[in-house]
Amino acid sequence: MALIPWREAFEIGIEPVDHEHRELIDLINQLHDRLDRSAEPEIVAGFLGEIYARISAHFALEERVMRDLEYDDYADHKDDHEALLDDIRDIMDVFDEGGYVDLQEDLGDQLETWFGGHFRTKDARLHTFLEDRGA
Known about the structure:
The protein is mainly alpha-helical and 135 residues long.
């Protein structure tokens, strides 16, 4: 079962961006499927680390583009990225300290809500800006 089912609400109407976002959601779901087969602590920790690393790398690339093009909403967009990374790091810390982590409720629901809102607002605005600049 997918941790985050793909929804049309995640699309912003720019095919290359929608494709990249779909790939990120697919990655999260693939990692979650692997986790379903084995819930050993090392596997859960690896899952959380991989999600964090991949999302962080995607954000770093997007932020570099924003800086290079002097995007006028860079700080707010970056703050939204940092908020999600902080939330994921908090979940990782709870798990590392021996606390219970429900991946569907603690991580899945949060990621689905965040991605849905972020794709429709922050990323949509960024990509409109990029299109307007011919980037």
